# Entry
Amino acid sequence: MNKKLQGLVLKNSDEIIRLWLRKVDQNHKKKLGQVAEVSDELFEGTNREFANVIFSMVENKGSTEELKTFSERLIQLGWPLSYLTDGMQVFRNVTVDYLLNQTEIVTKEDCIEVLHMVDDWIDPIIHHLVNEYSGNWENIVSLQKVALQELSAPLIPVVQGITIMPLIGTIDTERAKLIMENLLHGVTKHNAEVVLMDITGVPVVDTMVAHHIIQAAEAVRLIGATCILVGIRPEIAQTIVNLGINLERFPTKSSLKKGFEAALELTGRRIIDMDGSGDKIEELLETLSKE
Amino acid sequence: MNSQSCVNIEKEWDIVSARQLGRNLARKLGFGTVDQARIATAISELARNIYLYAGSGEIYFDIVEDHPKKGIRIRAIDQGQGIEDIGKVMKDGYSTSGGLGAGLPGVKRLMDEFHISSVPGAGTEVEVVKWLR
Ligand SMILES: Nc1ncnc2c1ncn2[C@@H]1O[C@H](COP(=O)(O)OP(=O)(O)OP(=O)(O)O)[C@@H](O)[C@H]1O
Ligand SMILES: [Mg+2]
# Structure
């Protein structure tokens, strides 16, 4: 690398930083404000820190510790990657402009070298920042995947012998498998006699979903329990009929409330009024069903 | 709103995008909840058939007018293996994938118009229309 040029940049780092800060200031604060709460002090402080990190990278090429700490902190703060990449672009422009304007020192022949040198500083930094950020995103995505999986087919034991599986959202093949597994596992674990599968929150019941529901209900029957399908909205009932799908092999109820009553009956129980004003339980069940 | 929209079907979740687009279009056109569900379900069936049997393809949506009627048209087009015997696949319960075999005959019942054409080895095209009433 050209020592003359590098020395020039390092010697005038204050001036370059000043130019950089001025440019960064204007457009970035506004953009940042949309994603994170940013005070003036925090913004200015971070800009200075950013500039220092860049220069220390320029000075001792290779040491990425500082850069790593810095980007980790910004990830924590929730600042977007674009703050950093835009900042680096501005740094590129400012530095190149600055160097090319030093006409007494920087000759015409140096021009290409200036461009290459600045790229050599900037590209590894951008590369590093993008890696840090995308690594973080991948991490988040995989954590959310786990969280989603836990949510995707929950089983809730309500009373002795009766368990509910509320399903909300689209069912794809992966989730359909999970439903089956959790259902069979849960029935055994909770000793359930009846499982209520609530599809109130499932937007579309096509042949694939229906097929999986039928298979799941069949499997539950084989291990000696009963699966009641509840929460069939009127429009879903219509489309199921249009598709010509036969759900008569196992009990279905329009609402969770009706399903729960049927489940109690199947397990030899019944809701009774203790004091004549038995509306309480009715109300409770009403809130349970999302009709 | 007369422009045509299209969803590429390649991954399983593309099926969800296709039916969301179709359902939104149907809602904007003024279809009621039941017809919206019918349209979304039909799209789901056609898109899943593409995904399962052809690997990839497209679903096109547009609005058709046949004065004074207005409706939504959905075309599912693929360049997959095609279908040898249309009569067979239109029968309830016929499936080569261990499914219910209710998809295509079901779509025919869900929608008002249904046309299917296929060239074995070259691809399949299904066109359906639901009229607003
Ligand atoms: N786009 C396509 N390309 C090639 N073959 C197709 C296509 N669509 C349907 N088929 C064939 O037609 C058969 C019947 O399709 P249909 O959708 O009625 O039932 P299915 O997909 O097997 O089961 P499901 O009830 O889950 O839809 C399929 O099993 C498949 O062999
Ligand atoms: Mg099908």
